[in-house]
Write a structure and sequence with these properties.
mainly alpha; 8 helices; about 170 residues
Amino acid sequence: MQNYIDRIVRAAKLDINLYEEVEADKGAMGQAMGVVVLSSLAAGIGSIGTIGAKGIVIGAITALIAWYVWAYMTYFIGVKLLPEPQTKADHGELLRTIGFSSSPGLIRVLAIIPGISGIIFAIASIWMLIAMVIAVRQALDYQSTLRAIGVCMIGWVIQAIIFMILFSILGTTN
């Protein structure tokens, strides 16, 4: 358990070696998924004041699906469309590194404090995006951080479009 907590803290500290470590550790998939679930639960708890308790469950399920879709899109874009000569990765490597890049999202639990939710969610989002860029750069063995940023942004836009289409088809319930 201490190793898991240590990994979460190191991921939040943007420790490049941590991302290399989980990329290589095929046994870390459950830990990566756990980080995504914990981060999404933190977001759900933080948004109780605006969404209510249902946000916890909806947030956890949505975050897991979004993690998988974004990781797959990032894999496809980064390995198939925009690889560097030394790029070698599999989908699992990206799932693990991107999962741990969700660790800064744990601070979203603090958004339950009235009056600071917006700033907490903004800080968490920026921090998580930076962690994701590092995770992608390390998992895809990129030399260029700009390429990692581009891959993350393209994947995010595609993921957002997919979710907008799904939500428009399924509708929202109140």
